[in-house]
Write a structure and sequence with these properties.
Strand content: 15-25%
CATH superfamily of the largest domain: OmpA-like domain
Helix content: 40-55%
Shape: globular
Oligomer: single chain
Largest sheet: 5 strands, mixed
Distance between the termini: 29 Å
Radius of gyration: 21 Å
CATH topology of the largest domain: 60s Ribosomal Protein L30, Chain: A
CATH architecture of the largest domain: 2-Layer Sandwich
Number of helices: 7
Number of domains: 2
Order of helices and strands: HEEHHEEHHEHEHE
Length: 219
């Protein structure tokens, strides 16, 4: 790689790495997912560009890094905007919003979503799901995985079936509100994926949940 291309690529990576934002909810400084995506895209694009342009690997790497940064940053930005809107509409609803890479996760506790041992969604929760559905229709490039979970009380077979029915209920509700069925699929995990200790009532209440995983666009 010649000096000019090396400097350009180095500056790009440095600028991406130095971009910090303040999380409006935790007030902590963090690197935005847009920047992380751009950095990953730049690295991958740089490698690919060098391989494709064998005559001038330095030039190929520099161009590939710029293109890769644009693609990676675009996905991160898309998910950043979707996350911000979901946080806004779900504030105070009892549904938590978290992020794992570019996947957004909505955790809906069972006690506010369903009656005990029921897969019928509580009418008091319809408004929350209606709001989620509007955001999912607006950001229509993301696929949606809906997962059901239970605590460890009862038989594994019963818990598995209940988790499947609850996940399916949420998926059906969102589809009836206009979310494209081709984007949505549901699965139940029963008691196999606890997030808290099942030996306490508080832990069991945390494990009874449905999660909506909003996946990054495939570009």
């Amino acid at each position: 790689m010649n000096r000019k291309n090396l400097i350009a690529t180095t500056l790009l990576v440095s600028m991406l790495g130095g971009c910090q934002t303040i999380d409006p909810y935790t007030r902590e400084e963090k690197t935005s997912n847009t920047v992380k995506g751009a950095g990953i895209g730049a690295a991958a694009g740089g490698v690919l560009g060098a391989l494709v342009n064998k005559k001038d690997r330095g030039k190929g790497a520099a161009i590939g890094a710029l293109v890769g940064a644009g693609i990676g940053g675009g996905i991160g930005y898309y998910q950043d905007q979707q996350e911000a809107e979901l946080r806004r509409i779900l504030q105070g609803s009892g549904v938590s919003v978290s992020r794992m890479g570019d996947t957004i996760i909505l955790n809906m506790p069972g006690n506010i979503t369903f009656d005990t041992d029921s897969a019928g969604i509580k009418s008091s929760f319809f408004g929350v799901l209606d709001s989620v559905g509007l955001v999912l229709k607006k950001f229509n490039e993301s696929d949606i995985r809906i997962t059901g979970h239970t605590d460890s009380r009862g038989s594994q077979q019963y818990n598995q079936g209940l988790s499947e029915r609850r996940a399916h209920s949420v998926a059906n509700y969102l589809q009836r509100r206009g979310v494209d069925p081709r984007r949505v699929y549901s699965v139940g995990y029963g008691e196999s994926r606890p997030i808290a200790d099942n030996r306490s009532s508080h832990g069991r209440s945390q494990n009874r949940r449905v999660e909506i995983e909003i996946l990054p666009p495939r570009r």
